[in-house]
Inverse folding.
């Protein structure tokens, strides 16, 4: 498998390019508008044809490059079916599998940060059928969890987030590598580590948020950073509802 993270230390964001080198097909997850050409160049260098571009959710802190990148390379732009956007996209569902040669993505719907939030469990069949890593979007970070207040109904969303983490992510194998969409420097959660990756087992053992019962977890998420600057404008853009919306 070919795998490359793109880390943005000025904003604490991450994007990922990966795929099957043997067949030459790949995907980009959570791309930023400012770096579209970098993803295209890396894929070309590695002989990958980008067939799928996925956003784990509608981002509120930066302009997504998802729709524009998909249009640039002729790929499918994928969001969970629950996404409320005006941008054309391919809807994906919980437990759906996306084939990229020997690389396989399984979608896990994990509402809480936003209604359409999803995580992506990735396997490399050349190594075996077991999953290798999970891209957790804004659901689970290293040392922290996603904030539930951006769409409103913060306590209700925090309860959904607890359920998504405990009923879906924490049922995955302990040795599964974990790559979130953010690390320290982002305002999409509180208390994130500066280390941009971890494992399910390490977070289960050492994340203080994951040790809380449901009510305490919901209460703890009332303490979140200020909302991202220009959040409303950015979200309108990413939803395809603003004057500077992506094509």
């Amino acid at each position: 498998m070919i795998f490359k993270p793109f880390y943005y230390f000025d904003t604490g964001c991450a994007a990922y390019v990966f795929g099957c080198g043997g067949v030459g097909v790949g995907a980009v997850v959570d791309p930023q508008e400012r770096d579209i050409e970098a993803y295209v160049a890396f894929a070309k260098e590695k002989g990958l044809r980008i067939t799928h571009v996925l956003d784990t959710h509608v981002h509120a802190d930066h302009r997504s490059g998802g729709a524009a990148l998909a249009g640039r390379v002729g790929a499918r732009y994928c969001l969970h079916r629950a996404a409320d956007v005006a941008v054309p996209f391919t809807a994906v569902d919980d437990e759906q599998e996306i084939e990229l040669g020997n690389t396989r993505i399984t979608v896990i719907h994990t509402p809480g940060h936003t209604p359409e939030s999803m995580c992506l469990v990735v396997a490399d069949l050349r190594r075996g059928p077991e999953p290798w890593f999970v891209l957790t979007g804004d659901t689970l970070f290293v040392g922290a969890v996603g904030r539930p207040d951006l769409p409103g109904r913060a306590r209700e969303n925090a309860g959904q987030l607890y359920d998504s983490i405990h009923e879906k992510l924490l049922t995955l194998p302990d040795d599964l590598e974990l790559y979130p969409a953010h690390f320290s420097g982002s305002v999409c959660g509180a208390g994130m580590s500066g280390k941009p990756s971890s494992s399910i087992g390490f977070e289960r053992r050492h994340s203080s948020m994951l040790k809380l019962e449901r009510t305490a977890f919901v209460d703890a998420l009332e303490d979140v950073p200020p909302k991202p600057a220009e959040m409303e404008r950015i979200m309108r853009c990413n939803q395809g509802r603003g004057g500077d919306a992506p094509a």
